[in-house]
Design a protein that fits this description.
heterodimer; A: mainly alpha; ABC transporter involved in vitamin B12 uptake, BtuC; 2 domains; two-stranded antiparallel ribbon; 17 helices; 4 strands; globular; B: alpha/beta; 14 strands; 26% strand
Chain lengths: 428, 268
């Protein structure tokens, strides 16, 4: 926060501004909004731009390289399944990264929770809801433990979660047993990845989503305009609605095409993983953007001392983001187990965490805290999943896979660091 | 203190300290401090580095508990044992290292920790309106938008937001810790105007500064600390600049200040 104390020049202060707040009233023109956006980008606030560019460029690249397989409905459904666990894990990491903390154990925590669920299903014969609940409770408890070590005792999160990264792997190994795997064959849990929303219901949900989104956006615009508050121009609101509608319709259309490999069988509809991700996205976005808890998370990430002086219980916020992170890790572990049909001692290890951190950072969440949104996890998760999926289709060797994914994460972190420097230099 | 220190028209002080002592371990930082802060007046708190200004305002803010002495707020004796209690009384402190979060906008910062809610939803509309109202009342005209991120504001604008944040809460006493340090000429001007308006809108203001020009420009009273003792707490009309500097550096000036014997004892 050192940059905040230096007094910038008075250049930004408009000399002859008579009444103040002129930007709040004159924000009605589309041109002004576009200019303001370009200013922000130049100032280092790239927002979702890198992730969207990444999705488009990588999509075109893999389409050019594998035109017959990459953009097919079947691969798109596969991509969604592949992206879901990464996205959900990354959503939890967004909360932790917002405080400028890190959870290196998030991946293996997803493994522990999945192992708990699988053992209950396979050995104890527990019904799916008991097993899922147990996995989620495990996540909550682990999060409380990690959060207490970081928030109450004050050990740097890097060290705590590095230790837990090792520790929890041992735990999973003990649960599953050396060299073994526990199958996950419960039909409800498997449905997350291998069943689809019926096509008609899919369309109904899609149109409902668009209608609700449009209604909320337009209503907010109406209220803000009526009460003379700062607001985006109507054109921008309409463009926003249009983009969301187009994406939802396109995804639904592609996934409603029959993608069965054999003739005579019908395989169509949105995989259940997608509505799950969308629900989490809506709920967590609401928590971060519309509740005082979310506001306090941003405040602690931006300036913990200011938050403390404002009467915010900083320790409580610290502990709760780790609880949220581990809970989402548990859900991610369940989704991953559903996809693979089993849990192994290595579940959640390897590059799971790297992918999720990469997803959050590529999506625009800062590693330095204070900046990030839940949607970053979705956009960044798609980029990461497209890379993994595309490289799989190309049949690249494992070593290249590691190098390329590591390189992309490094690139995203560099963009983040440069954006931050640029922001400090331009006073944004 | 032999000179008359009160004017009859001043009324009840918003804050009165009587014989306040504060020690940290073996080191006594505040010795028998008396101080009066009146509504509608700016009281400058001056003193050299280490004179105890920070300790004094932290005691007022409830961050440090005083060891002994009386703390009167609007004439009633109170004990302030935490920042929340101080805030509940109507005491707001604007710290030197502005307690603002860079990544939040002006409205979000002004309501930080005390957000208005509709059920569990944040009531953004009402917060934005109230923030704008407060800024307008203080005649703040330099902000382009109340939805601007604080990171994009200049030093003077940040100071303005920090002060407006303090005023938003029906505060009665606003303590400003060196609000003009590190500001340019034009920005210092804006902040001093704002300090004056705070007093003119009925607030009791404590203004800490090392700059005598600023002090004499906006203050009604001056309180000079010298090595933890209150050397003088008088209307500004009773002192001139060389006297204040003497009070700050030597603890006494003419018939003002701590007694010579006491001053000598402090020197040793």
């Amino acid at each position: 926060m050192s940059s905040t104390l230096s007094a910038p020049t008075s250049a930004q202060e408009p000399g002859g501004a008579p009444s103040g707040f002129e930007a709040d009233r004159s924000a009605d023109s589309l041109g002004a909004t576009v200019r303001a956006y370009l200013d922000r980008v130049r100032g280092g606030d790239l927002g979702a731009l890198p992730a969207i560019l990444g999705i488009v460029v990588l999509g075109l690249l893999f389409f050019a390289l594998r035109p017959e397989t990459f953009l097919t409905p079947r691969n798109m459904a596969n991509l969604a399944d592949q992206a879901a666990p990464i996205i959900i894990l990354a959503m939890g990491l967004v909360f932790i990264l917002l405080l400028g903390e890190i959870d290196l154990s998030a991946g293996v925590v997803s493994g522990v929770c999945a192992a708990v669920m699988a053992k209950l299903l396979a050995d104890a014969g527990a019904p799916w809801y008991v097993s899922v609940l147990a996995a989620i409770v495990t996540g909550v408890v682990i999060g409380l433990f990690t959060g207490s070590l970081v928030g109450m005792i004050g050990i740097p999160s890097f060290v705590v979660t590095l230790a837990l990264f090792l520790g929890w792997q041992g735990f999973t190994l003990r649960l599953i047993g050396e060299g073994g795997t526990v199958p996950v064959r419960d039909p409800v849990i498997s449905a997350i990845s291998d069943r689809n929303v019926p096509v008609t219901l899919g369309w109904v949900l899609a149109l409902l989503t668009i209608a609700v989104y449009a209604a909320l956006q337009l209503n907010r615009f109406r209220v803000q305009k009526a009460r003379g508050l700062a607001h985006a121009p109507l054109a921008v609101v309409l463009v926003r609605i249009g983009v969301i509608a187009a994406v939802v319709v396109l995804v639904t259309a592609v996934l409603s095409v029959d993608r069965a490999p054999a003739v005579g069988v019908v395989l169509a509809g949105i995989p259940y993983a997608i509505p799950l991700v969308v629900l989490l996205l809506l709920f967590l976005t609401f928590v971060l953007g519309r509740t005082s808890f979310g506001r306090h998370v941003y405040a602690v990430g931006g300036n913990a001392e200011a938050a403390r002086r404002a009467g915010i219980n900083v320790t409580r916020i610290r502990v709760s983001v780790f609880v949220i992170g581990s809970t989402l890790a548990a859900i991610s572990g369940i989704v991953a187990a559903a996809r693979l049909g089993s849990v192994a001692p290595g579940s959640g290890g390897g590059n799971t965490l790297l992918y999720a951190v990469g997803a959050a950072v590529i999506g625009g969440t800062s590693l330095f805290g204070g900046r990030g949104r839940v949607r970053d996890a979705v956009l960044g998760g798609l980029v990461v999943a497209i890379i993994a999926n595309g490289l799989g289709l190309l049949g690249t060797e494992a070593y290249l896979n590691f190098i390329i994914t590591g390189g992309v994460l490094l690139l995203a972190a560099s963009v983040d660091a440069l954006a931050r420097r640029r922001a400090a230099a331009t006073g944004h | 203190m032999s000179a008359p220190t009160d004017r009859p028209e001043d009324g009840t002080p918003t804050l009165e300290l009587r014989g306040v002592n504060k020690s940290f371990g073996a080191i006594q930082v505040l010795h028998d401090v008396h101080m009066k802060v009146y509504p509608g007046q700016v009281t400058a708190l001056v003193g050299d580095n280490g004179a105890g200004k920070s300790t004094l305002i932290k005691s007022i803010a409830g961050i440090h508990a005083i060891d002994s002495g009386e703390f009167l707020f609007e004439g009633r004796p109170v004990t302030v044992s935490g920042p929340r209690e101080a805030a509940a009384l109507g005491i707001e402190i604007v710290y030197q290292d502005l307690a603002l979060a860079d990544n939040l906008d002006v409205v979000q910062n002004m309501f930080l920790g005390r957000e208005r809610k509709n059920g569990i939803l944040l009531d953004e509309s009402s917060m934005e309106e109230a923030a704008r109202d407060t800024l307008s009342k203080l005649s703040v005209r330099t902000l382009k938008s109340v939805r601007q991120l604080v990171s994009s504001l200049s030093g003077g604008q940040r100071q303005t937001v920090a002060i407006a944040k303090a005023v938003l809460w029906e505060s009665k006493l606003v303590v400003l810790d060196e609000p003009t340090a590190a500001l340019g000429v034009a920005q210092t001007r804006q902040v001093l105007d704002l300090v004056r308006r705070l007093a003119d809108t009925g607030h009791a203001v404590v203004f800490i500064s090392h700059n005598m020009v600023d002090v004499f420009e906006v203050s009604d009273r001056i309180a000079a600390l010298y090595l933890g003792r209150m050397a003088a707490d008088v209307p500004i009309s009773q002192v001139d600049r060389p006297q204040v500097i003497e009070l700050i550096t030597a603890g006494r000036s003419g018939n003002l200040g701590i007694a010579p014997a006491e001053a000598a004892a402090v020197e040793v």
